Amino acid sequence: MPEDPVAPDRVTGGVWAVESLDGVALDAQAWIKIGSDGTVTGQAPCNRFSTTQTAPLPDIGFGPILATRMACPDLDRETAFLAALRQVTSGAVSGDVLTLFIAQDGALVFNRVPEGAGG
Fold first, then answer.
1. Residue 67 has what pLDDT?
2. pTM for this structure?
């Protein structure tokens, strides 16, 4: 029987605000939210996006990303952020920090947003 691509409880239902990409602070209002049903929604530096979770932690991955196409001054960061999400191969949670590892030895680091704030 195939494994259900649903994230563990410690990842689902909350909003995760991006802190850094490959060790460099990503000074943008970007976040993701992983639903218990495997749906993923979020805000990249410019546009909202959605995708699906294709595998549970620790071998997390995402399907095709659908995003709005509004222009903004942060398009370079937007492109880097979405490209990194497409390349995620695994992840880990430590307390209120979610780290998504990228195929090329990089990482996206997120902090859990307290309930009632943001997202």
1. 96
2. 0.86
